[in-house]
Amino acid sequence: MKYARLTKEQFDELHAEFASFLATQAIDKAEWDSLKINKPEVAEQELDVFSDLIWEGVLSRAEYLEHFSRNHIFLFQCFDTHVQSIVLKSLIQETDFLSKEGLQWLSDNMFTENIEMKVGKKVFTEDRNASIFELIQQGAFLSDGLLFKQINTIIES
Fold first, then answer.
1. pTM of the predicted protein model
2. In what side-by-side order are the strands of the sheet with 82-90?
């Protein structure tokens, strides 16, 4: 398995897609039920293959990621060969970017000495999708990139 198995909730959401996937493997409902009982290891392999296919599709389309922690916000834009990053760090320890108040504080203090901002670029040294998946495993999530674009526009002007 290249990535991670989807959760039960994710499988439930992708029920129709999973049924189609099984159909491409020439596995109907009766055979799937039989596999789960008589050959659970084969059923597990099918779940893993399907999970990897879904992850591969999602990661291939991933363009922006965000990761929030108490005192940091990491914003990423993913390209084919590298990732651009903007890291915002509060120099005020009491700040909590995980709260509504903390985000309002950021808005009010964005371009003050209370915020340290770093811009970076990292070339993918391994597979692009695996690198993006690693960011997700560390807590990043897919985003529309609005925050990245807003800050990047200000930085570039």
1. 0.86
2. 115-123, 82-90, 72-78, 64-68, 141-143
